[in-house]
TrEMBL record:
<feature type="domain" description="Exoribonuclease phosphorolytic">
    <location>
        <begin position="27"/>
        <end position="75"/>
    </location>
</feature>
<dbReference type="InterPro" id="IPR036345">
    <property type="entry name" value="ExoRNase_PH_dom2_sf"/>
</dbReference>
<dbReference type="GO" id="GO:0016075">
    <property type="term" value="P:rRNA catabolic process"/>
</dbReference>
<comment type="similarity">
    <text>Belongs to the RNase PH family.</text>
</comment>
<dbReference type="Pfam" id="PF01138">
    <property type="entry name" value="RNase_PH"/>
</dbReference>
<dbReference type="GO" id="GO:0071028">
    <property type="term" value="P:nuclear mRNA surveillance"/>
</dbReference>
<dbReference type="GO" id="GO:0000177">
    <property type="term" value="C:cytoplasmic exosome (RNase complex)"/>
</dbReference>
<dbReference type="InterPro" id="IPR020568">
    <property type="entry name" value="Ribosomal_Su5_D2-typ_SF"/>
</dbReference>
<dbReference type="InterPro" id="IPR015847">
    <property type="entry name" value="ExoRNase_PH_dom2"/>
</dbReference>
<dbReference type="GO" id="GO:0005730">
    <property type="term" value="C:nucleolus"/>
</dbReference>
<dbReference type="GO" id="GO:0034475">
    <property type="term" value="P:U4 snRNA 3'-end processing"/>
</dbReference>
<dbReference type="GO" id="GO:0003723">
    <property type="term" value="F:RNA binding"/>
</dbReference>
<feature type="domain" description="Exoribonuclease phosphorolytic">
    <location>
        <begin position="78"/>
        <end position="140"/>
    </location>
</feature>
<dbReference type="Pfam" id="PF03725">
    <property type="entry name" value="RNase_PH_C"/>
</dbReference>
<dbReference type="InterPro" id="IPR050080">
    <property type="entry name" value="RNase_PH"/>
</dbReference>
<dbReference type="GO" id="GO:0000176">
    <property type="term" value="C:nuclear exosome (RNase complex)"/>
</dbReference>
<dbReference type="InterPro" id="IPR027408">
    <property type="entry name" value="PNPase/RNase_PH_dom_sf"/>
</dbReference>
Length: 182
């Protein structure tokens, strides 16, 4: 095998609520963005534990996995951001909770914001094509906002880590200088 495999496992705590349907275990949402060719003959495991759910479990898991992959240093071509978009009359609503998902037609999208690719789209109800197009358009625009927030969070974390490393290195240099002076 000349590429890494990506294995996703989602576990929901028994007290965490009910999942309306099971997701396929061979989900390929991240395969198009993770540079798997860098890790031949290996496997990347993504394990998600859901402790409580009040709607938006899938988008939250996708957003969390994106950040976890980046934090682990796995090279990626783009972020994968996800969200739900529901329709109340003719008004689109973003990031629905469980009650809203039960009462409104909604679509769940995973988007690669830079390219605009949509690796995942789930729609359980019928929606007029014009309203559906509006929902998808708003979701793609919202994914760019989520990407910007994720990017800012990752840059902030990286700055903190780099600062901590510089500080630790400086402490070692100071200790060595003191040891040489003594």
């Amino acid at each position: 095998m000349d590429r890494a495999g990506i294995h996703v496992e989602v576990a929901v705590a028994p007290w965490g609520g009910i999942e309306r349907r099971q997701r396929a275990r061979n989900d390929r949402t991240f395969e198009s963005v993770v540079h798997t060719h860098i890790f031949p003959r290996s496997q990347i495991d993504i394990v998600v534990h859901v402790l409580q759910q009040d709607g938006g479990v899938l988008p939250t898991a996708i957003n969390t996995c994106t950040l976890a992959l980046m934090d682990a240093g796995i090279p990626m071509a783009d972020y994968v951001t996800a969200l739900t978009c529901g329709l109340y009359g003719s008004t689109p609503l973003l990031d629905l909770n469980l009650t809203e998902q039960s009462d409104l037609p909604f679509v769940t999208l995973a988007v690669q914001p830079r390219s605009g690719n949509v690796p995942l789209m789930l729609l359980d109800t019928r929606i007029h094509i014009e309203r559906f197009s509006t929902m998808v358009g708003i979701s793609v625009e919202a994914s760019k906002v989520i990407r910007d927030e994720m990017d800012a969070a990752m840059r902030h974390r990286t700055e903190k880590l780099a600062h901590a490393m510089r500080g630790a290195r400086q402490e070692l240099l100071d200790e060595e200088a003191m040891a040489q002076d003594a």
